């Protein structure tokens, strides 16, 4: 839970009232190639009723051979091109 998020109200400044956060999860079981994972979250602001986010759909597509044990990507950090 994030307890100290401070956002500007949309009525004060619409553009600056938007926000996002990033997170990473790992599946509990094996995910098959082509499988669709759908998810959404409930967002709580103060003591208001929760708002449900849009539904996000991720379709799993394996592109590496299963025997690949490691992957080297550079430069890190990158902005446009990764080798």
Structure description:
The structure is a single chain. With 83 residues, the protein is mostly beta strands. 0% of the residues lie in helices and 14% in strands. Strand 2 and strand 3 form a beta hairpin. The two termini are 37 Å apart. The model has no long low-confidence stretch (mean pLDDT 79).
Q: What gyration radius follows from the Cα positions, in whole Å? A: 19 Å
* Uncertain residue ranges: none
Mean pLDDT: 79
- Helix fraction? under 10%
Order of helices and strands: EEEE
Instruction: Give a short account of the largest sheet.
Output: 2 strands, antiparallel
Outline of the structure:
The chain is mainly β and 83 residues long. Helices cover 0% and strands 14% of the residues. Strand 2 and strand 3 form a beta hairpin.
SSE layout and pairing:
Elements: E1 36-39, E2 42-43, E3 51-52, E4 56-59
Antiparallel strand pairs: 1-4, 2-3
Task: Supply the key terms.
83 residues; mainly beta; two-stranded antiparallel ribbon; 0% helix; extended
